Amino acid sequence: MPDTRIIRIEGVKGNLTDRDLAAIEEAGRIIREGGLVAFPTETVYGLGGDAFNPRSSSRIYAAKGRPSDNPLIVHIADVADLHRVALSIPDVAYELADRFWPGPLTMIFRKQEDLPRETTGGLDTVAVRLPSDPVARALIRASGGFVAAPSANLSGRPSPTSIRYVMEDLDGRVDAVIDGGDSLIGLESSILDLTSDVPMILRPGAVTKEDFLTVLKEVALDRTIYDDQSPEAPKAPGMKYRHYAPRGELTIVHGEPDRVVSYINERTGGTNEITGVIATDETGSRYHADVVKNIGSRNDEYGIAQNLYRILREMDDEGVDRIYSEDLGGSGIAQATMNRLLKAAGHKEVTV
Length: 352
Ligand code: TXA
Ligand code: MG
Hints:
Elements: E1 5-8, H1 18-32, E2 37-39, E3 46-50, H2 54-64, E4 73-75, E5 86-87, H3 91-100, E6 105-111, E7 125-129, H4 134-142, E8 147-148, H5 163-170, E9 176-179, E10 190-193, E11 200-203, H6 209-212, E12 220-221, E13 249-254, H7 257-268, E14 275-279, E15 291-294, H8 301-317, E16 322-326, H9 334-344, E17 349-351
Parallel strand pairs: 1-9, 2-9, 4-7, 6-10, 11-12, 13-16, 13-17, 14-15, 14-16
Antiparallel strand pairs: 2-3, 3-8, 4-8, 5-6, 6-7, 10-11
């Protein structure tokens, strides 16, 4: 097991210092030589290796404990590099890139022949993202331009949104981690498949269906995203796993706020289990469970998205056996929040 080196970024708001750049250069060398480096992006932390080195991709799967049929996202730093990993790129991809890159969008294309199948989980297609985080982009360039990176968590745990959780999961399993502070968005990128006739959203994220419709005439939604009864398998292989799961059993409670509060209070009193509630600022003080976490205000869907994974992990840290969450759905990024919450709950939900 390697000793994991921690690299702290000194520059704030993307103004990297000379020391930062030197440290990132060094981290890039580690990746070019076949090592693994966890790094910040604006969505969640990534676990990076050289996308063109099949041994690096195999090491990523091993470090995460991830099934090797679950493909990795290839991160680039310049749109001009897209054709090095993707084939038959439609014009609309460049329009989407113009509008949403750098940023929280992953697009799926047919893959270039020489990109190893270890990186694409055996598929003929490749997922590509150009992140906006300046540390991520500097690292990608220093690594030779193509960094394969899943989220930097152990398989089955929530994606990490700060270095603390990266270390909890990957200390001793990667060569270095770069600490760039808390993730700005807190949920993984939107995934859009451009290999089907009508572009299809495979994973909702900060770039929403409404955003896509400003560029595309039509966009489809993989129906397995909100519907666990669908007989189809999700088109993004990773979406089939019960991901993002806390250890405690999680139930989502839908309904009018007063009824939700009473329903949850009835079930969190007088039990030997440690109980927890994911509440909002508006309701938090009304709950009596052992652990009550306010995820943010209902008026701030970005704040709620940013806090979700941290709160799921805190429920575990505090040993909570049974967790109830309010419905966190709504428009915009709240749809992505609700998708992750449903997955964390294994679709266990009640309406009161
Ligand atoms: O925001 C993000 O996308 C983060 C940061 C680090 O960039 N990365 C991330 O990677 O969330 P990961 O590996 O945790 O999730 C990638 C998802 C998985 O569900 C995987 O199955 C899907 O993308 N995927 C990757 N390549 C694919 C492909 N060729 N076709 C369909 N789905 C693909
Ligand atoms: Mg992941």
